[in-house]
Amino acid sequence: FPPEQQRQIRTQLSITLLGVVSQTLLPRADVPGRIAAFEVMVATPAIRSLVRDGKTHQIVSDIQTGVQHGMISLDHTLLELVKQRMVRYEDALAKSSNPREFEQRAANFRAQQQQAGMAAMAAGGITTSLLASRFESRWSPAKRLEAGLFGCAAGAILTLLPMSLPVGTAVSFLIGTAIGLLTVTLVIHLSSWIGT
Fold it and tell me: Strands 19-27, 34-42: parallel, antiparallel or unpaired by DSSP?
């Protein structure tokens, strides 16, 4: 539009606009095909004012904070698809409207997921080894404590390992439980072999 008409057009658009839904398609990571990532903007009084005043660059932040009005940002949808393992991280990053912020949010999610997984794995290992060593009747209390400490050490070591397993905390707990059982079994067999 010519410069002299732009203000009038922005005013008309701000009055008539109800909302905007946009989408982009990404290749699926879980099954063949594509999946839509979308963004929803509802024309709230604040959005209408931004359009009317020509401050469209501020609309993105209003979309991010407008969840209570039914708004959702493209980057939020992309991150949810990555979390659900429906799309690959690289594909989502390529479609992101703000790649730097998307990378930060994805890194925060991965860190939280790793911490939860490692904690669950360690808890499984520690719990199992303590319980198993408690019920080994041939051992003295000192030997039971030693086996339990070995299991605790194995669980603690698990928290130090860089974990990138794409599993939830329940599976991590089961992995830790299995490692705890293996640790106690090893201690039992070593004790029998050594004769203590």
Answer: antiparallel
- Rg over alpha carbons for the chain, rounded to the nearest Å, is 27
Q: Residue 184 corresponds to which tokens in the numbers above?
A: 């106690």
The set of residues, in sequence order, having a beta carbon less than 8 Å from that of 120 and lying 6+ positions away, is 169, 170, 172, 173, 176
First to last CA, the chain: 90
Q: Provide the token pair at 3.
A: 């410069």
What CA–CA distances, in Å, run from 190 to 96, 140, 187? 55, 15, 5
pTM of the model: 0.62
Determine the Cα–Cα distance for residues 152 and 168; give it in Å rounded to an integer. Answer: 21
Output the six-digit token pair for 179. 């490692």
The CA dihedral of 88, 93, 97, 103, to the nearest 10 degrees, is 120
The pLDDT tens digits of the residues spanning 95-115 come to 998 899 999 988 888 777 766
Q: Are 29 and 85 in contact (CB under 8 A)?
A: yes
**Type of residue found at 143:** K
DSSP character for 140? Answer: -
